[in-house]
Design a protein that fits this description.
A seven-stranded mixed beta sheet has the order 2-1-3-4-5-6-7, with helices on both faces. It is 42% helix and 16% strand. The protein has 19 helices and 15 strands. It binds cobalamin and iron/sulfur cluster. The site of iron/sulfur cluster has 9 residues, from loops.
């Protein structure tokens, strides 16, 4: 069978979507033909029809998160106007809100949760002209009738799955000269219950359907890195596992084997409370250059009570001191504009980053995803501005840069400025030179945004640019 995956990523620079890469691999292994089309801009939507005409898929699959859903609906409607091809949708937003998604008549069906085996089964049955409406995880639309099947088991052993197929993504096409930084993910699930994250929702949905937290064996992880290295010859990579440090014996084995086999730098996510000095030393020896740690809020009460992260400032400070001792660089994740946030708590987040001397920082505006505990609390308490949290808005990802919440004592401008000058405000507490460089960068980015937003300046900017280049 010929399967076309559509990956809308408007406003995002994601290089791949892990789920589609796994599904492509398992489908190809079974002898099917898979193509993927990335839709990165509004204009890219015009490429879909010619692509379908030339590839002639027998099945189309769309993958969506919350932010891309409106684009998926629009794409599916356009496809259905022109082609009579079965069209299915999956992804985290579908898993969270199947009742809403199934209302859209241009989808012939949807997949809740992990799709590798259910989708393979669907393709197999369609290829053999067999009835398929009883496949677990899938809901189907038959005219006005909706058929809802129960959720099947989670993939028990991740080693069973083939290596994710990166070749279908634009990012990897033509790559091979060491200029790409691929991402890897060896596990699924996280045991913690941070109120803003998808994990507690997925855990609830999957309850009774198998082990939620799973990991590939170290041997398989090594084999994947080796294969991808052979294919793309990169020098550095990123590990996207939610918490790479979750299982100490796994981490230590990984570091030992990795050090024996490879000489490449990498970075990974670790969580305060799940990592000790022995692990940090092992990571360093293996070639890890950067650990990425979620601080999210500098105020302990907000972190613990609102975000559900039972981590103290003391533990954070201790971990960062250890990382310094071992010689690992540190990046922090920070959220601004969470419920209960004030100018004072923003300052506390800045001050904590300064205290631990974070090497890199990512500050983003908090976004209240529906179905998460915190997202639902925001909705219940009437904190959401207008329809800012609405999957039917095609600009919802762009909108995620502005706060979706009205917070007493904080204006939208306060939040924007706090995010924009976050790094400057941290660096200026301990490194004036770094702070000034950062400020220049922020101002340059401002100017660029201003010029891009006003076409009247485009010509002048080009003339100045050419002049400066000369
Ligand atoms: C790795 C990761 C990334 C990576 C890779 C992108 C990706 N989506 O794979 C990077 C760093 C690029 C990334 C970026 C972003 N991410 Co992200 N990411 C994750 C993370 C940690 C793991 C995803 C994963 O590997 N899942 C495992 C795979 C197997 O599952 P899957 O991809 O969902 O696919 C399975 C099923 O959904 C289904 N399926 C999926 N598509 C289809 C299609 C069909 C036809 C079928 C039948 C089935 C099917 O089958 C797949 C295989 O089992 C999750 C958190 C989590 N624990 O889930 C967040 C998460 C998905 N990300 C999130 C967000 C918000 C983003 C960004 C928007 C951040 C930003 N502001 O830029 C961008 C968006 C990029 C994009 N367009 O995808 C949110 C989404 C929230 C929501 N409700 O939509 C999550 C849930 C984190 C959170 N906040 O809780 N992300
Ligand atoms: S530790 Fe990270 S991945 Fe795990 S639940 Fe919390 S935010 Fe989500």
């Amino acid at each position: 069978m010929k399967i076309l995956f559509l990956f809308p990523k408007i406003g995002s620079d994601a290089q791949w979507v892990v789920g589609l890469a796994f599904m492509s691999a398992i489908l190809k292994e079974a002898g099917h033909e898979v193509e993927l089309l990335e839709i990165s801009t509004e204009e890219d939507k015009n490429k879909i029809s010619p692509f379908i005409k030339s590839f002639q898929p027998q099945i189309i699959g769309l993958s969506t998160n919350f932010h891309q859903y409106a684009h998926c609906v629009q794409i599916a409607r356009e496809i259905k106007k022109e082609f009579d091809i079965p069209l299915f949708i999956g992804g985290v937003h579908v898993t969270f809100r199947p009742d809403e998604v199934i209302q859209e008549k241009s989808f012939d069906g949807l997949c809740i949760g992990e799709g590798e085996y259910p989708f393979l089964e669907l393709v197999k049955r369609m290829a053999n002209n067999q009835e398929y409406t009883d496949i677990p995880n899938f809901w189907f639309r038959r005219g006005e009738k909706i058929i809802k099947n129960d959720l099947g088991p989670l993939v028990e052993d991740l080693d069973e799955l083939p290596f994710p197929d990166r070749s279908i993504f634009k990012h990897f096409r033509g790559a091979g000269k060491g200029e790409i930084i691929p991402r890897f993910i060896f596990s699924r699930g996280c045991p913690f219950d941070c109120t803003y994250c998808s994990n507690h929702v997925l855990k609830r949905i999957y309850a009774g359907h198998g082990r939620y937290i799973r990991s590939r064996s170290v041997a398989k992880a090594m084999a994947e890195i080796e294969l991808v290295k052979k294919q793309y010859n990169f020098k550095y990579f990123k590990m996207d596992d939610d918490t790479f440090s979750l299982h100490k014996p796994w981490l230590l084995e990984f570091c030992e084997k990795y050090a024996q086999k490879f000489d490449m730098g990498f970075e990974c996510n670790v969580r305060v409370g799940t990592i000790d000095e022995e692990c940090l030393v092992a990571l360093k020896k293996a070639g890890c250059q950067l650990i990425k740690v979620g601080l999210e809020a500098g105020n302990e009460k907000l972190r613990k009570e609102i975000l559900g992260r039972n981590i103290s400032n003391e533990e954070i400070i201790k971990l960062f001191a250890l990382a310094d001792k071992v010689g690992l660089q540190k990046l922090t994740f920070n959220m601004i504009g969470i419920p209960g946030e004030t100018k004072k708590t923003i300052r506390e987040t800045i001050n904590l980053n300064a205290k631990i001397k974070a090497d890199f920082m990512l500050a983003t505006v908090f976004y209240p995803y529906p179905e998460t505990l915190l997202g639902e609390k925001c909705a219940r308490e009437g904190l959401i501005i207008g329809d800012r949290v609405n999957p039917f808005r095609p600009d919802s990802l762009l909108h995620a840069e502005e706060s979706a919440l009205k917070l007493p004592g904080l204006t939208a401008r306060d939040i924007k400025e706090a995010v924009k000058y976050f790094k400057f405000n941290v660096y200026r507490q301990y490194d004036l030179k770094k702070a000034l460089t950062q400020l220049m960068q922020d101002k340059k980015a401002d100017l660029k945004k201003f010029i891009i937003a006003k076409p009247i300046f485009h010509k002048t900017a080009r003339i100045i640019y050419r002049f400066l280049k000369k």
